[in-house]
Write a structure and sequence with these properties.
Chain lengths: ~260, ~210
Amino acid sequence: MGRLRSLLIPGVDKQLLVRDATRVMPDLARRRFIAGGASLGALTLLTGCDVTDSFSAESMLKQISKFNDGVQAAIFNPNALAPTFPESAITKPFPFNAYYALDDAPTIDGKEWKLEVRGLVDNKKSWTLEELYKLPQVKQVTRHICVEGWSAIGSWTGTPLRDFLKIIGADSRARYCWFQCADAEGYNSPLDMATALHPQTQMTFKFGDEILPRAYGFPMKIRVPTKLGFKNPKYVVSMEVTNDYKGGFWEDQGYNSFSGS
Amino acid sequence: MSSLAVNEQPTAAATSTKVIQPAWVRTVHWINAVAMVLMIMSGWQIYNASPLFDFTFSKSITLGGWLGGALLWHFAAMWLLMVNGLVYLALGLATGRFRKKLLPITPEGVIADTRAALTGKLSHADLTKYNYVQKLLYAGIIVVGILVVLSGLAIWKPVQLQYLTALFGGYDFARYVHFFCMAAIVAFLVVHVALALLVPKSLRAMIIGR
């Protein structure tokens, strides 16, 4: 405690510091961390993060979250399929979920929309919806699991992302496919390449055999049944194949980036 | 650590300063206490994001501030809980502590000791020996501890560990199992802490060993 306080005094904007810390943790949480500091400090040694680097619970938690990204990537089995269900198991009505109300969901003109392709690919041409609809499609009935804990079973039909990545000549050794979306505030999310190449990861054009409705991401969503819901971007407008970690809407706010199921 | 525990077994009865709780037990006990409290409080905040029942936990007793913060805590403290728990199980089995302290548990013994406890006749003179109620509760909480970790893994990795998830009756059911295990642990904690305070020498034994 004494050491912490001495760190706070000179040349540091305390209010800023406090506001920073409370973003992820309220005061109560900070106090609780300090109380349990010794053993959690020991945990940081296991993860190999430098405690002296920044003595704050928030940065320590973020280091462990990165460590958890690595653990999840290591246990990710590219051949393990998410369980599938009969059509009778589909959740009706399937919930709409976003950080805004349905009325504020993007309204996209399917005739104007194009999927922009960037980064480490041979062919960077943009794709119209009509062109994408001509690609072979498969259907999956899988469970969508939200980071909040609830789940719902839905039916999604579209083109396996790995087929599309092959068509455009994507470098499959690149680390991420980074998606940008049309949502207000610009939703985006990185998808690790191993998951992008998973057989069930899909460029989705239909929900329940109907053209993807606005609520579920018209004209295209990326369905990833091996990830939590927020890693399934809707209203996708561009895809970049990249080795850079470009962050994501929720990932930047503290949700674990890998968030595999 | 294990050598420490092995050394004191034969001498414990002979020496006057009898070790009630060996150092390894005390160490894993308090690490577990910290890990459990962190897991429970962050778990309550996670629960609040999508409550299973018609109530939420007051923010004053949750950890993390919001769902994202709580998840960071939960998935950090889980390592502490899991690694420490595995050390405890391994040493408990290897040193024979589980067998010596917790077994046998007989229904007659439990009934007799429960009756004695409720009528205020249960002796705590010898802290090295657990009565049947203690045996049942301590063995039971170990099982619940294993279940809470397994059900947690089942809802964390319902694809990679889908057989485990299926064993818990699927994702949604595993959430309820996880919740009720937490509830059992909290109920245990209330009784455990209350009794430790009622019999302070037991608390002392868990701190200094004697």
